[in-house]
Each structure stands twice: as structure tokens, then as C-alpha cells.
Amino acid sequence: MLDPATVISISELNRLARQSLEHTFPLLWVAGEISNLTRATSGHVYFSLKDEGAQARCVMFRARAQSIPWRLENGQQVEARALVSLYEARGEFQLNIEALRRAGLGRLFEAFARLKERLQAEGLFAAERRRPLPRFPRCIGIVSSPRAAALRDVLVTLKRRAPYLAAIIYPTPVQGESAAAEIARALDVAGRRNECDVLLIVRGGGGIEDLWAFNEETVARAIVACPLPVVSGVGHETDTTITDYVADLRGATPTAAAELATQGWYEAAAEIEDLAAALARAMQYRLGRQQEQLDRISLRLVHPATRLAQARDRLALLGSRLDATLAYGLRRHRHRLNQAALALGRNIPRTDRRRGQLGLLSQRLGTALRNQQQRRINALENVAVALNHLNPEATLARGYSIVRDAGGRLITDAAVLHAGQTVSLHLARGSAEASIVTCTSTPD
Length: 444
Description:
Blueprint: H1 10-24, E1 28-39, E2 45-50, E3 55-60, H2 62-65, E4 77-87, E5 92-102, H3 105-121, E6 139-144, H4 149-161, E7 166-171, H5 179-193, E8 198-203, H6 217-225, E9 230-234, H7 242-246, E10 249-250, H8 254-261, H9 263-299, H10 304-346, H11 351-390, H12 392-397, E11 402-404, E12 422-426, E13 431-435
Helix pairs in contact: 4-8, 5-6
């Protein structure tokens, strides 16, 4: 808290006022009408929000303004998500706008979310409820407005992908207060007539309020009750409606819905082309094989006398080859046998000379082991003598003793002793206690 007697500057006052406003009010939604709209060259948008009793200055910075999907104009009723603040330079109260939506859209989104949650809880969105589309439908029904561009897109797609299919249009408005009831009625008519194999429900893109008829519960339940499989093609790719969730299949656009309904025929056409090409290749290959076989058979049509002469010549040739092969094999095996005999003679072991060498090496090994053992014994005796010289018990045996004070500390300097002090003496054999009468310290 400021001291009432403290004098502050206008800048400090405005700063404190801005901080107080921003800390007091959270981000909140404010409804009003746009007026005094100004677009700066920087991309920032300045305007006022007003109602019957008051108005507030607003600023929407460029990054936020660019995210609005429609053009702002004076007179528009909007709902703004705003931060309550103060423009310090002029001391003006203002709202910093974070997001804008057209008035009423918040309620629509809430209604959409509630209905979606309720229908999902009932199982209307379950995958096991969805019906498969026939692969080869003979007739396709279309629920849409006769004047809609989406209908023209669907008809063009059907003509391009499956021109031999029949199409039945069930006309209905797709926007307005009565649109939901009319769409549900068209679905009911299509189901009762049962004159098509699959049903498309299509509409072009738009805002949530434009597509709201497809978010009505009556339309959702009419789709579920329809005995025909239903494909939804409502809006653009980013648009999502309740119709998309309850339909048996969703197309991202009306054109995509038509493509899904004709996918079987389109794939079959491609498969037929592939099969025709494969059949042509197989026939060409079979004809080529038969021609080759015919050529081989024609070459075999030889006079029997000629064939006998050819057989005699071939038999003589084979006999000569067999004789030559046998002679070559015999020579080769004889050569290998001679080489093996020579190698065996060279590799007979000479045991006499090796036996003498073995005896000599055995003698040398025994001598080396005895010498090594003697060296180890001599080294061990030397180590024992050295250890005996370092043995404190041997020192005590020569008449020395170890002196400790009453605390057991070793005494090496007479300077730490005093007359009357009791010390313990550790001798070579046993120990004794002594009392110091006099003590003399030897100088260093």
C-alpha cells in the first residue's frame, strides 16, 4: 500500500494502475458490437466494443488478428477473450484481445459438445454399429440441395469414376431453421423407398452456424435409423459435424464421399485393365512357348537311318572318350601312389639319435633343478638371519627392555619422565614395574 503522503509520477501511477487491473481481472470473455475499427500499417487492429450503456477501447495485435477466419467490420456482434489492462502512455483503459468469435458461437460449440457426448454414451458412434458399404452399388442416393455446388461436384465425380451408375437425388435445404427436419425427412423417404444401395449426405463448407443443421439430434437419429449405409460428405476437411460421427463412413469433402461410394467400381476398372494386360502377356508367352516347342519337334523329324548313323558315331565318340578317361585316371593314381611312397620314406622317424638327445636333456634338467633348489635354500637362510637380527625379542634377550608409562605409551626420551612416576618394563622374559627416582635427559 502506498503512503497517502507519498508523491508519485503519472508514469508510476499508470504503471501501478495497469498492474492492479491485470492482477485483479483474469482472461475473460466480453460480448459487444465492433465500432471505430482501424487497421494500422503494422497489422495491429484497434476498435471499440460497445453495448447500450458503455464502450471500451480494444487492441488486437497482428499475430492474433491474422488468426481470425473472417474479416472484421464495424457493426459485427462478437465475443472477445480479453485481458483487462491500461495503456500507460495515455492513461487509457483498454482490452488486449487474445481471441475473437462471432456472438453465439460459444453456445453452439457447447451445444455441439453436449450432444456429441450424449450420443457417444448411447453408442451411436461405435465402430461395430457401422455398416459396410457395398463394393459394387448399382444406384447411389444423394441427400442435398439441388442448387448446392457440392451436388454438382458429386455428380461430376460419379460420372468420371462410374458413369454407368444410376443416381437419385433426394432434394432438401441444407441450411436454415427448417433444414434439420427436412434432411431427416429426406433420409426417411430414401430409407422407405429402398431404391438405392448407398446414400450420400453432402454439403459444401462453411462456418459452424452454416453447418448447424448437420449437428442436430434429429438428423443424427435419422441417419442411425436409415436402413441404407450412409456416407457423410459435409463441409471441408477441417469441418467436423455430428453427422460425420454417426454416418457409416465419412468423406473429408463431398467429392471424397462420392469417391468412397464408387471405390469398388473404380478399383474394379483398374483391376480389369490389369487383368486384361496380364491375360495378353500370358497369351503372348504361351504362344511363344508353343512356337518354340513346334520348332524343336520339327528339328527332331529325321530319317531313321540318319538317326542310327548319328547314334553309331556318337557311341564311337563316347567309347574313345571313356578309354582316354580310364587311361588318364590310371596314370594319375599311379603317380599319386609313387609320391605317397616317397613321402612315407622321408617321414620315418629316426629314434636312435632322438633317444640320445633325450637322455642328455634329462641330465641337464636334473642338474638345473638341483642348482635352482640350492639357490632358493641359501636365499631363504639369508632372509631368516636378517629377520632374526630385526627381531625385538632378540634385542631384549641381550639385556634391553621396553619402557611404557601408566597409560601404555612407549617411553623413548627421559625428558618426559619425572621422579616418583611409575613405569612398566617389558623384558625378554616377563615384565616388571619400577618407580623413577631420578631422571637425566641426554642432550641431542
